[in-house]
Every structure is written in structure tokens, then in C-alpha cells.
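Recall the central idea of this unit: under ordinary conditions, the amino acid sequence of a chain determines the structure it adopts. In this exercise we apply that idea directly, starting from the sequence alone.
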Amino acid sequence: MPAFELFARAGLATSNSEARRLIKGGGARINDGVVAAETQPISLADLDPQGLIKLSAGRKRHALVRPSEP
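Accordingly, the structure predicted from this sequence is:
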């Protein structure tokens, strides 16, 4: 899944275009690392040891994402 879509689905952006602007502006982080490109793929390899992905939009808005079971 592209990074911008994950930010929009997690509620940290109201639309895909807002998520793209957030990433281009350098305000988006995944597991405390800056998102390099809006189309950066996010996969199961990005999970931390607890099975979560931490998303941050700016300094004060955060979300934890847990992948759904197939």
C-alpha cells in the first residue's frame, strides 16, 4: 500500500491529496522515520516487534496501525 493511502485510511489526513501534501512537506513519519516519497510502499516488513506500525503527522497527531488478518 502506498504511504499516502495509509495516512488517509488511518485518519491522519482527510484525503489522499492532503496526505500527499503532508508527506511532501516532510511532516509524515512511519516508525519515527521520515517518509521519503508519497508512493513509498508500506508492507508487513515495516511492522515493529509488537506487530504495529506507528504513523505520525506532525508532532502531535499519531496513530498505531495493526494489519488485518486475511
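The mean pLDDT is 94.
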